[in-house]
Write a structure and sequence with these properties.
This protein is of the alpha/beta class and 286 residues long. The chain has two domains: 194 residues, P-loop containing nucleotide triphosphate hydrolases (Rossmann fold), CATH 3.40.50.300; 76 residues, no CATH class. Helices cover 34% and strands 23% of the residues. The protein contains ten helices and twelve strands. Strands 8-9-10-5-11-12 form a six-stranded mixed sheet, with helices on both faces. The chain has a four-stranded antiparallel sheet with strand order 4-3-6-7, covered by helices on one side. Strands 1-2 form a two-stranded antiparallel ribbon. Helix 3 packs parallel to helix 6. It is globular. The N and C termini lie far apart (43 Å).
Amino acid sequence: MSERKHRQQTQMVPYPSKSFVPERDLGFMPVLECSHLGIEFGGLKAVDDFSVVMGKTEIGGLIGPNGAGKTTVFNLLTKVYQPTHGTMMLEGRDMGNMTTVDVSKAGIARTFQNIRLFNNMTVEENVRIGLHNQIRCGMFSGILRMPKYWKAEKEQHEKTLELLNIFDMAGMADERAGSLPYGAQRRLEIVRALATNPKLLLLDEPAAGMNPHETEELMENITKIRDQFRIAILLIEHDMSLVMGICEDICVLNFGKIIAKGTPEEIQANPAVIEAYLGKRKEAEA
């Protein structure tokens, strides 16, 4: 199937910071602006000079060989790690003093390489955890089971089913999360992240362990999420058919540094990217 089925032909246009954003996002504040972002561990530069701009509804890709620093970038964006240098802006708001909790409230949600669900809780309960910052019921209303409490419970139940329906999972609402097939657990983690009402969704290897049919469905749903929620999505992925099929702009990391940025077509033809993945060709012996 053509990689372009899911990725519509998007015109990437210059943004004042010398970066590029989708044409449809011109006139809107970029959802994310990173400038010279980096972190050192004992003198080792795990990420160095990471600078990107993401449009309000852009689907971006972050790729590179194993150990390139991709997940470290996600940990910086969510403040699991505090950067040692550089700046991050979320819709123009400086993230410098934010904690992990602050970042979640401000509008960045993520999934993980290794699934992190509450396995002994139901599918619905897992999603409702993501709705915690949207609860409109006070402690006393909850303790006394007042009408406001029951109204909030009804709203959260309906919202949960609405989110689960994105992946046709509403029928699984009462099932234990740990009993779901691997692919369904992956999808549930994305739904839980969406429940936090993010402006930027970070997906760390969302297709890992999925079969080709599940990956195809995932591609359709990522595009659907972007269009329905009008949010930006940045994903780390090793499945190049997925990356090239839905990402509008791609950033390539190697040894913690950006070695290439551009459209899928530009990345596929970039010699530095080919070398990072395949290594240099040995010169023929004379």
